[in-house]
């Protein structure tokens, strides 16, 4: 009998991780695939013949008291990690959460919940509440999958599903689709059987933040790199340049724009840079997939040699859904291959360019803010998820406009005109490893006696990265 793999789709990037990577297609050779759709998820890019169910039908809703305790436990975990390491979690860099973080009331709350006795009590209470939560009948029992795979471990739906699966003895695998995810949600309320993260630093953080964690943690690159490594995804340079009116004979700089609410005055910084460059290089500005105000780039796009590239994403603000379309994979891979280097505020785009052996010039300053300002772009350079890349030889930080101009000129001179490609064999091996992980022995325990919930205190301290 074929195994049954349940794939949870809650967020747009899950499409790239599970569908466009080829993982679902590979699994379909040896398993029956069923998709569980979150309440905001779209099935537009899923295979029409695959079975689909609603996540709410199989993931029991967390009781309100348990949701409250879990939120406090997560806040305590983040505050404690911050206090021990001297830096904020990635989540606290976002605008709304930064505003909350600076609230005196929130600061006092963090101070209270991160104290050892309170923190220990929250962890113990969360564990007890999960154990006392009665298992109710739902569609999961009738479906009885061998393995459940999801990309998120901390949403209420994910916690409910992991708890229900674990009590039913169903194997669970969390495969994070971004290498900053662990830094955003370090607290693990319900431990999956296998946790796949893309960085060793992320694995170490999860172990520190969740003492006694019973999950097997694997360090593997995110599967979206499979699409970048596909030799058939690369356009010829002339064809690529023709799409945007670029001159194939001149170097191209790719500026990957940050999310609009994440940085300040990015077009102003780029405009000042362009004023210091001659007419040789062209700048291809790849708008952020969630760009709500592309007009902020229009004045810059009027300058010679500056071109805008709109990503081909299925972006629906009304539905709160944003996912790359398959066609964008070819465009993005070709963009990386045919550009001399990337220029950006430190972000996950760095990893994509490094796969091609391309330099990355990071913007670590602001047009109007001092570097000590909590909203400065420097915070992304100092972010914990970027630790593994700060000393990389192909990453050049710019802490001022003068640095940026100099780094861009040196990167242009270093360009040799060749196209590096990530090894296809490595990407294929990562996908094959994922298939083996998901098709391993599915039902690990017929009568699971107790839920695995992390508890205890993390005593180790991290190295200060500021």
Report the span from N to C terminus.
54 Å
Any idea what the CATH architecture of the largest domain is? 3-Layer(aba) Sandwich
Number of strands: 15
CATH class of the largest domain: Alpha Beta
Poorly predicted tracts of residues: 86-100, 442-466
Q: Estimate the mean pLDDT confidence.
A: 83
How much helix, percentage-wise, in residues?
25-40%
- What is the oligomeric state here? single chain
- Output the CATH topology of the largest domain: Rossmann fold
Global outline? globular
Strand content: 5-15%
> Count the helices. How many?
19
Q: Radius of gyration in whole Å, from Cα? A: 23 Å
Instruction: Specify the biggest β-sheet.
Output: 7 strands, parallel
Protein described:
The chain has 19 helices and 15 strands. Helix 3 crosses helix 5 (104-113) and helix 3 (64-85) packs antiparallel against helix 6 (116-132). With 466 residues, the protein is an alpha/beta fold. It is globular, with a radius of gyration of 23 Å. The protein has 2 domains: 1-226 and 423-461, Glycogen Phosphorylase B (Rossmann fold, 3-Layer(aba) Sandwich), CATH 3.40.50.2000; 230-414, Rossmann fold, CATH 3.40.50. 39% of the residues lie in helices and 15% in strands. The longest helix has 22 residues, at 64-85. 44% of the residues are buried.
Compile the SSE list and pairings.
Elements: E1 3-9, H1 13-20, H2 23-27, E2 31-37, E3 51-54, H3 64-85, H4 95-102, H5 104-113, H6 116-132, H7 139-143, E4 147-150, H8 156-167, E5 171-175, H9 181-184, E6 194-197, H10 200-209, E7 216-219, H11 224-228, H12 237-244, E8 252-256, H13 266-275, E9 282-286, H14 298-301, E10 306-309, E11 313-316, E12 321-324, H15 326-338, E13 341-344, H16 349-355, E14 360-363, H17 378-381, E15 395-398, H18 401-414, H19 424-438
Parallel strand pairs: 1-2, 1-4, 2-3, 4-5, 5-6, 6-7, 8-9, 8-13, 9-10, 13-14, 14-15
Antiparallel strand pairs: 11-12
Helix pairs in contact: 3-5, 3-6
């Amino acid at each position: 009998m074929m195994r049954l793999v349940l794939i949870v789709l809650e967020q747009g990037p899950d499409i790239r991780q599970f569908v466009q990577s080829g993982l679902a297609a590979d699994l379909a050779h040896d398993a029956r695939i069923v998709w569980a759709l979150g309440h905001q998820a779209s099935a537009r890019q899923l295979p029409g013949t695959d079975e689909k169910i609603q996540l709410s039908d199989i993931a029991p809703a967390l009781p309100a008291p348990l949701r409250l305790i879990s939120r406090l436990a997560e806040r305590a975990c983040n505050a404690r990690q911050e206090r021990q390491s001297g830096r904020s979690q990635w989540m606290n860099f976002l605008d709304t959460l930064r505003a909350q973080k600076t609230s005196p009331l929130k600061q006092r709350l963090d101070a209270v919940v991160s104290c050892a006795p309170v923190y220990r009590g929250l962890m113990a209470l969360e564990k007890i509440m999960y154990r006392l939560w009665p298992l109710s009948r739902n569609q999961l029992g009738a479906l009885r999958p061998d393995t459940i795979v999801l990309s998120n471990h901390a949403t209420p739906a994910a916690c409910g599903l992991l708890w229900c699966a674990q009590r039913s003895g169903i194997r669970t695998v969390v495969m994070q689709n971004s290498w900053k995810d662990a830094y955003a949600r370090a607290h693990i309320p319900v431990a999956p059987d296998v946790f796949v993260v893309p960085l060793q630093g992320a694995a170490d953080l999860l172990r520190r933040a969740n003492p006694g964690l019973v999950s097997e943690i694997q360090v593997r690159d995110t599967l979206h790199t499979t699409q970048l490594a596909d030799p058939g995804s690369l356009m010829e340079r002339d064809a690529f340049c023709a799409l945007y009116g670029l001159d194939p004979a001149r170097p191209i700089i790719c500026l990957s724009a940050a999310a609009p609410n994440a940085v300040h005055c990015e077009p102003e910084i780029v405009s000042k840079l362009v004023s210091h460059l001659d007419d040789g290089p062209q700048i291809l500005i790849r708008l952020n997939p969630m760009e709500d105000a592309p007009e902020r780039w229009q004045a810059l796009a009027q300058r010679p040699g500056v071109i805008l590239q709109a990503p081909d994403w299925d972006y629906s603000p009304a539905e709160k859904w944003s996912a790359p379309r398959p066609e964008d994979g070819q465009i993005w891979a070709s963009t990386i291959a045919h550009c001399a280097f990337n220029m950006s505020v430190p972000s996950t785009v760095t990893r994509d360019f490094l796969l091609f052996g391309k330099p990355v010039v990071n913007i670590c300053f602001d047009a109007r803010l001092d570097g000590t300002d909590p909203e400065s772009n420097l915070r992304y350079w100092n972010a914990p998820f970027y630790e593994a890349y700060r000393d990389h030889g192909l990453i050049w930080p710019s802490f001022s406009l003068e640095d940026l101009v100099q780094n861009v000129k040196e990167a242009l001179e270093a360009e040799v005109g060749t196209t590096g490609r990530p090894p296809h064999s490595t990407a294929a091996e990562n996908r094959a490893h994922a298939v083996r992980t998901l098709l391993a022995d599915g039902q690990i325990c017929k009568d699971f006696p107790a839920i695995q919930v992390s508890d205890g205190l993390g005593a180790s301290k991290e190295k200060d990265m500021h």
